[in-house]
Amino acid sequence: MILRPTYVEKIMAYIDTPFAKILSGVRRSGKSTILRMIADNLRERGIGEDRILLYRFDSLEHEEIKTAKRLYDEVKRRLQADGKTYLLLDEVQEVKDWEKAINSFMSDFDVDIYVTGSNSRMMSSEISTYLTGRYVQFRVFPLSFGEYLTFRSEYGRNRSDGSGSDGKGNGRGDGKAISAAALYGEFARYLRFGGFPTVHLQEYTLDEAYTIVKDIYHSTIFTDIVKRNQIRKVDQLERIVRFAFDNIGRTFSANAVSKYLKSEHRSIDNETVYNYLSKLVDAFILYRCPRYDIQGKELLKTKEKFFVCDPAIRYSVLGYTADSVAAMLENIVYLELLRRGYEVYVGQAPGGEIDFVASRQENRLYIQITQRIDKAETEEREYGRLLSLPDNYPKYVLRTDEFAGGNYRGIKTMHVADFLLTDEY
Length: 425
Fold this sequence. Notes:
Elements: H1 5-12, E1 20-24, H2 31-44, E2 52-56, H3 68-78, E3 85-90, H4 98-108, E4 111-117, H5 125-130, E5 135-139, H6 145-155, H7 180-193, H8 206-229, H9 234-246, H10 254-263, H11 270-282, E6 286-293, E7 298-308, H12 311-318, H13 325-339, E8 343-349, E9 352-360, E10 363-369, H14 376-387, E11 395-399, E12 407-408, E13 411-415, H15 416-421
Parallel strand pairs: 1-4, 1-5, 2-3, 3-4, 6-8, 10-11, 11-13
Antiparallel strand pairs: 6-7, 8-9, 9-10, 12-13
Helix pairs in contact: 1-2, 3-4, 8-12, 10-11
């Protein structure tokens, strides 16, 4: 088991606080493994086995615990008479009305609660209704590029080449133990294979990896969305998914999707499109990135971008094409910013669109992303838009081609892979 310390450290900062710790994210992103890491961390702190109760509701072992009342009775039976009990509930959405059980645990017993779940109910109004002010939520993503390097070092063919792991799961040799060419080669592979941990536990071909990832996609679509929401027009939903995947990195509206489907003789109203997109966001397949007017300092209500939870999801559905790389570079940077706790927007500036405006407390970053700069007009577009911004927040141009120097009139220029591994932002 490879450690993912960033998540464990963030979550364990809330140990013994009166909040349920809820880990949510797309299926197979590693939530269950992180929960086991939390259990190990509790043991390392000297907490006895009898005080750590771990339930996996996707296992036959707990098949009969399907309602909040049964869960309540089961946990009550095993609680220690004195002192705190640590309750870890994996894939808790399989238990009907699980929110009520957790609320009762916190009201009736001395417990510290950790919960994982994969589907839309983990971000629904029921959580805030039953656990108002009593939970903190952590988004779990597929592997970052740094974590991917750790997995490759441990499980991949390059395990003996010293490429990346520090042995603690940090996934960053940060390029120090690997040549730039090898690092960028690994990044190109990461772009194609994505970050689902299961894809990197052994050496798979692309076809084998996409077969695994497509199964994750189908189980999410048909179990977490179609079945749970009783959607009858599955073909309509899948066409919307394909449209969104094909337009990663482009702003669009529900009206644009509706017009596209009507051109294919598939009539659908804007409200239904928006509803389907929202369900895809709730199931962690898509992430919504709104536009922000930098000059007016306000969110814009029209058009937005959508990004997919992992590049391999897109490629497993639509296939790989060379002209999709630019969009997926944006996608990877977007996910990394979310991992680091930034609120991310598409920037609208007088000089044109800024790929990302990322804010975290008082910090802000402006980022432009491009595959290559081989023309003067491309250079003017990427750097000129950032130079038009009047403030002094850090500005980056990220690219994947060869370039000289790392600074252009105060704008930092970096390879995307180096940006993903640096700790400077």
